[in-house]
Write a structure and sequence with these properties.
Chains A, B, C, D: It comes from Winogradskyella epiphytica. Four copies of one chain form a homotetramer. The first copy, chain A, has 409 residues and is α+β, with helices and mostly antiparallel strands. Chain A has 20 helices and nine strands.
């Protein structure tokens, strides 16, 4: 076990202080792979809607680790045995669970690194760090991969009650100023328990879990899927797709070396090797935005217009409905644009398009939340809660949107 | 209109500063009838569960007035005409809407002032103050009584979207430290609008209203109907009923003159006259608790034991279930107590009893919440919300409880 | 050591949750001596100025214990050895350090329990509880009395850096809404260290200590010595003195048995025996306020007027200056009152009087705050801080006030 | 006057909601010159010390405008006449007061745009916008330049009590999590008054002003001049100076067009023309950081090393003292580096250097803070405050630092 020699702390507007428990973890935080997260925004382009939303994946990762420390204390207090090594594994696993995120992750994954999930890349980073730190991350990796036999530890990293959600909802709510999304992470953690290596919520925590699911749903529609944010993200995806398209046609595009690499390569799980990881580790928000700033003056009509829209926050219009949009509306917008600027249907499609938004507040199939009753009984929360029709929260909601240019374009 | 001459402010941990808009309102606040609210706790005995819950009806009333100022500003901004006189009427009506509350209101109303609601008593106080202030409260009274023709003004005072709820949920959540109940009053107010003199919520506020209803439900079960709080309140009701019983048997009981009056009189709407109001205005938490402290040494077994239980927070046990309790369980507890202390069934009933708790998060019959869509359409929120099954919130929930003595009694 | 069996928590709006570490401490909290603190306001009559200031000594005591848990963790982290028994002693000592406070402590101590400090009474309570709990409080008592050889433990209970101040400044600031008094208790605690059994602040904490001293000074003048609060407290002292005076003249006064005892006895350290303690344990805010409410109708001009003034918040006027008041001004107010109501000089003195307010932000003589430099050197903070002239904070400030009736009296 | 047609609001974690008062102001905010502030961090590289400090100049500008709205309300309430046009001028002036800031302003001003202050550039932007908006900003410009005859309006924009400080201290404190710097902006604003067109603080606000000055001093040393932040900023200055140096030697450096322009031109007040402004408007944090990321691989030893240090947060060491550093220490570090890497003295100076930090909490010469006493007298706060030796705060404090490489370099 690493020695506890110095009290290292980070200031956090939410929790006050975040304490770094030992020097191994401190060294991981100091590593350039982790420092890079300082340059990756947690919420992508949401700051165009919520101007306070500039917090980073770096800060979120520290926050998760802080909550994990609390969870370990609560569970030990209740008699759940967790060794020092396991504690360390849990802390490292949660600290690094998101290290594989690239800049504007969602847009990236749907445009230039199609086939490799951020979880997979996180794992690659962890394995790389494990080499550098002489195997000290082995247990953490086992927990992260869900292979560690004590299942509740894996659930603390990834489940509907994991420390990831417990921090990000609170943090995103805090920085956006959307108070409705604020959850009482501490109360939730206080209500955790473990039976047969399974993570459970105690009976008296039922209302808090409901509240948590509702808050998540609220944040989903009010923040993550805010219609202006959706437009911005679609525009960014368009930019990256268009850039790739132009590159394939040998059109010259200025950008950083790391971004150049990803625009020019077809990356998938097989081709994603050590070199890819090294280059990926150099990619952050600054590569993307700096490229956008350059491309805003590019001669390509599509590329330059998309970039200007984001930079000047002069976005497309968007309509959101509960039913699919009419194709005829889409076509008339599209046709008007093609006529006005003499562009092709394919080019017009970057400015006129439809899409769907889906959310399911409670995943009732894969990872249920189980409730531990005083009597010892264990029930799925949907059945445990007699008050709110949680089934309603289990029903996926789908909305349909259409984007099209403002009149003045 | 009263002159605005001096900037009087109250500190409020929640809103920062509460500004008193004019000297008439300042004089009303200075009146002893209003000052008395400083000695009436907003949440009764809930501090036995939530030690921070010592805020008063005085502070809540100021908070409501503050929110009403915001609501008036928002509505005027949206083009709803509100004259200075109407504004003043709204502010006074909300300031005084709860002035008729006695100490531990719920327990009182179910024991010694059976038949007169606090709304009725609020009205009496307002009429009395109207005399003293030469008719300046006439418009406020009209709004409070729901008689003022501009219906939305009455709805700002009393409806599912009134400023009363907007403050008390936020305030109770703040002082108890139950963050889950915190609502974003300011956002709700920002979403208000008026069509055809009806108070509405704008379309983009639907999620906020849902969140507000959920928060209210949460507070209801987690705080207002917390099982320990329920026991305490039932014990207090028992104390007051027992005291009245003893008084009818001419047993001597020390207490304040005001409390003496109410223990010795049968008050109802007809007999509640000017004198009653004067005496009622002298009744506050201190009369009740001081009496309890004296009666804790009374020779009557029932009275002294009930008082000690509350004072030392050594309460009855309580079981809460979703189905009615079995009579047999009740009887066995009851019988044990009668045998042990040689008391009658009637006396034992003060320590062994059952009851029901009911809550309906959304009142879908009487006072609907209507949503104003961008298209101009207006719909009941239950129909407007396609996401959460708000019908679930409209279903009244009933729980059943049984109280009985701890083993050591 | 007591067993840790159940996670008992209290909600706290400030710290979130306060965890009760073991069943001995839980049982102490459950004891009626401690429960009584629920009925003693931390800030006396300050709520007449700051309507949110209704928090109790009960809540403050829990808060202190919470911070002590943090301090123990920080010091252990830095290598200071603290055994489980010592930790328990520290927690109990801080939990009970204020248990000897009566209602409206300051006013009481200057009127009816002249010669016995609340520290002395706290000690009596602790000794009594030590008997009931079979000696489990012995170490706590030793720390509380400053006799325990490891001096820093005593300093955590009572010094310029103790956990008492660390909680009450934060708590009073929170409930009054006076944000300027909010201190960063957690940062201060994080900067604590121990050398040679002496409690020190680390070099990088110098600014935080300065900030803390300034905040304390701010709270002193803005809150604790707020001129309206000073009047109210002086009036309350007058009430108690007048009551005692009347009792000596055999005038009948209604009040609770506990208050009756103290009005009729001369209590000092010698006569304060076990019986006195028992009766003292029954005295709380409700005895005082209930008496005031009764006495507001007493025939004695002085007593009834003083009581009405507080109850209706219709107080004396007050002038505060940096120089002593002129006797001539005092006399003219006094004479006017005597003439108008035909009362004696002695009676008029209850309504017309002068006084002094003194505060010294940093006590540079008795209990210095020492700073530990990275070099290992230790210096008094006044010498360590080169930035702010902390000497200025060491200089006692005295202000002078005069109270006199409003014109309409 | 612009019409008030739609309630536009921004979410702010600090103030809740920020309301945009009219469509002219809304259009200014929408302008790309203003939108650009979304990409300029308020606190530069401070996020390397305080990971939450990612808020932008965009958000700060909105916050200032919000506080100005409050100030206008308070002053009008007190009878100070402010016309609607003047209000609009005040709001626009404060909204745009910082629009001339470039990225990492302090570092820029000391390296590549030496001679033009950000105030001057703000003015250029305002004049440009005034043209686009047909003269609607004329009054705002007059206030901003300090030429408007009603002096207090200029003081609301720039003085020791201006709305700029009132927001940035609060905001920086909030996002860094350094609670000690939190000021009660609302109380300060409530205490403002105007006599003879001069902005004053009322007597009862003296303590709040002291608190504000102390908080500013605290933030200065704890945050703005935090030693790690100082190192980072010096490194950034070094990068920009080195880049300029290399460019003069015709060494090729990749960077954005806007940055290229400033690296290749000598800009001063005379040469700063309309074209310069246009290019300046395209410069933001992304140009600088993206350049750093490219240059981290440059063959120049100095440039690449400086860039890597910031990107990987692997900075120089720093010592801070109250006395100037010894030249001999400096030289030995310098010599060691020159030997090890075979670099020149000039190159070594980028890694080994000294500097000074100076702060004066209260500027007692130029812009005093005047206090308005109830008697009508007006005094400088230094003389008005009898409690704290504010002279101590007027004394400039100077500290000396030395930076040098870590051993491993």
């Amino acid at each position: 076990m690493p020695t506890k020699n110095k009290l290292k702390i980070f200031n956090d507007p939410i929790y006050g202080f975040i304490t770094i428990p030992n020097s191994l973890i401190f060294d991981i935080i100091q590593h350039k792979y982790f420092q890079r997260l300082r340059r990756i925004s947690q919420m992508g382009l949401s700051y165009l809607v919520y101007p306070g939303a500039h917090h980073t994946r770096f800060h979120h990762a520290l926050g998760c680790m802080h909550l994990m420390q609390k969870a370990v204390n609560v569970l030990r207090f209740k008699g759940v045995e967790i060794s020092d090594e396991e504690e360390n594994g849990l802390l490292i696993a949660i600290l690094l669970h998101d290290i594989g995120h690239g800049p504007f992750s969602h847009a990236m994954e749907h445009s230039i690194v199609n086939d490799v999930s951020h979880e997979e890349i996180s794992l690659r980073f962890m394995e790389e760090l494990n080499k550098e730190f002489n195997g000290s991350l082995t247990l953490a990796i086992s927990i992260f991969k869900g292979e560690y036999p004590r299942r509740f530890m894996c659930e603390l990293i990834s489940s509907q009650l994991d420390m990831d959600r417990a921090d990000y909802l609170k943090r995103d709510s805090f920085y956006t100023g959307v108070a409705e999304g604020n959850i009482n992470s501490e109360r939730l953690i206080t209500m955790l328990n473990v039976v047969d290596d399974q993570l459970l919520i105690e009976e008296k925590g039922i209302l808090s879990v409901e509240k948590f699911l509702i808050a998540r749903r609220f944040m989903y529609w009010q923040v993550y899927m805010h219609k202006t944010g959706v437009v911005a993200e679609q525009l960014l995806m368009g930019i990256l797709r268009r850039a790739k398209e132009l590159v394939l046609q040998d059109v010259k595009l200025n950008c950083s070396q790391a971004l150049y690499y990803f625009l020019h390569s077809e990356i998938n799980e097989q081709t994603f090797n050590a070199k890819t990881l090294t280059i990926f580790s150099k990619l952050d928000d600054f590569d993307i935005v700096a490229a956008m700033k350059d491309w805003a003056n590019h001669e390509d009509f599509v590329l330059s217009n998309l970039c200007q829209m984001i930079l000047n926050r002069d976005l497309l219009k968007i309509k959101v409905k509960n039913k699919p949009m009419k194709i005829s509306d889409l076509n008339s917008h599209s046709q008007a644009l093609m006529n006005k600027y003499n562009i092709s249907q394919h080019e017009a499609d970057y400015f006129v398009f439809t899409g769907e938004l889906t959310n399911q507040a409670y995943q009732n199939t894969s990872q249920k939340i189980n409730v531990l009753f005083k009597s010892g009984k264990i029930k799925d929360i949907v059945k445990a809660s007699d008050q709110l029709n949680l089934k309603a929260l289990s029903k996926p909601i789908t909305k349909y949107y259409m984007c099209y240019p403002k009149k003045k374009m």
